Amino acid sequence: MNKFARSVCLGSALVVSACGGSEQVEGEELAQQSARLLTASSQGCDYSVASVQTTPSPPQYNIVVTRTGGVSCPYPTGVSQVVGTAVLNAPGSLGMVGGSLGLAVGYVKKNGFSGSSANIYSLVHVDTATLAVMRNADILCDYRTGNIITGSLSISADGTGVSVFGTKDGKINGQSGTYYSASFVNFFTSTTPPTYFVF
What is the DSSP-derived secondary structure letter of residue 77? Predict the structure, then answer.
């Protein structure tokens, strides 16, 4: 099963649990999936991602990527870099995937300091060598129609594309539906916008 299919299954697991399915088993699977999405490998190196609260009021969180090692890693280990921030609420659906072209980190955050600001999904391309952010690509609902609630990352088999699957309570490109997927072709080497599927 490819990684995008696993993301779709993750969404299905949420639905099964909400409808009275095997909550304990699904909960364990979701926990394992979440743990996997907090680590990734790229170009022989291993990385982890975490959120770190930096201020209590208003709450602010840094999204930090750390290079943790790797048997063939050519870069120094133990190096960390802030690749994003979230305010007011702790970042949700934090995850990371990696391939030969780099790392992709994604999370749900408030789109501003106002309590009425919409939640969006922030997706960034992180350079493997420098840990610098090379691209920002936000996924958001149409203006004043609602929020992105969750998002789960996957990477294509050839390592060039990145997809996000999740839930929302607003419209995307005028389309209503509980679920969305956003597929970025050549995510690491272009700024091509995603193709959306809403259902």
Answer: S
CB atoms within 10 A of CB 181: 22
Q: How far is CA 190 from CA 46, 98, 159, in A?
A: 24, 16, 13
First to last CA, the chain: 22
DSSP states along 97-125 = EEETTEEEEEEEEESSSSTTPPEEEEEEE
How many CB atoms are located within 10 Å of the residue 82 CB? 13
Question: Nearest CA to 7 among 46, 28, 27, 33?
Answer: 33
Spatial separation of the C-alpha atoms in residues 68 and 9, rounded to whole Å: 29
Q: pLDDT per residue over 94-118, tens digit each?
A: 999 999 999 999 999 999 988 889 9
For residue 9, name the pLDDT band (cuts at 50, 70, 90): very low
Burial of 64: CB neighbours in 10 Å, binned 0-12, 13-18, 19+: middle
Answer yes or no: are the C-beta atoms of 67 and 46 closer than 8 Å: yes
pTM here? 0.82
Name the E strands within 116-178. 119-126, 133-139, 152-155, 162-167
The answer for 176, left when phi > 0, alpha when psi is -120 to 50, beta otherwise, is: beta
- What is the CA 113 to chain-centroid distance, rounded? 21
